[in-house]
Amino acid sequence: MEVGRICQKIMGREKGKYCVIIEKIDTNFVIIDGYVKKRKCNVNHLKILDKNLELDKKISKEDIIKKLEKEGFKQKETVKIKEKFKKVTKDKKKNERKK
């Protein structure tokens, strides 16, 4: 488990999203960034993948995402349930007004 290793979150609200280890804190914790919020993460919450990225010391989130996409790790867009619900209720209200 070294800096630049590509991982996938397996627990929490960001479950299933890809990330990269950007700093190792100790044997149990690392700092991750990518399709997730930059944060401290327990290594037990990560699935370590075989691929590695070359990272500079100060790399931006956008550059990490570009490198992940170049390696074939694209994140699917997720639509929140609340947003879908709002759209459906707006459509129903429009239909009721037409009648």
Structure report:
The protein is α+β, with helices and mostly antiparallel strands and 99 residues long. Helices cover 28% and strands 29% of the residues. The chain contains 2 helices and 5 strands. Strands 4-3-2-1-5 form a 5-stranded antiparallel sheet. A hairpin with an 8-residue loop joins strand 1 (5-9) and strand 2. The longest helix is centred in the C-terminal third of the chain and has 18 residues, at 81-98. It starts with a strand and ends with a helix. The mean pLDDT is 83.
Any key phrases for this structure?
elongated, 2 helices, alpha+beta, 99 residues
As for the number of domains, it is 1
Q: Give helix % range.
A: 25-40%
Supply Rg: 18 Å
Question: Span from first to last CA?
Answer: 62 Å
- Strand content of the residues, in percent? 25-35%
Shape: elongated
The largest sheet has its strands arranged as 4-3-2-1-5
- State the total count of DSSP E strands: 5
Q: What top-tier CATH class fits best?
A: Mainly Beta
Largest sheet: 5 strands, antiparallel
Our count of helices gives: 2
Task: Summarize the helices and strands and which ones pair or pack.
Layout: E1 5-9, E2 18-24, E3 29-34, E4 39-42, E5 46-52, H1 61-70, H2 81-98
Antiparallel strand pairs: 1-2, 1-5, 2-3, 3-4
Question: Briefly, what is this?
Answer:
The protein is α+β, with helices and mostly antiparallel strands.
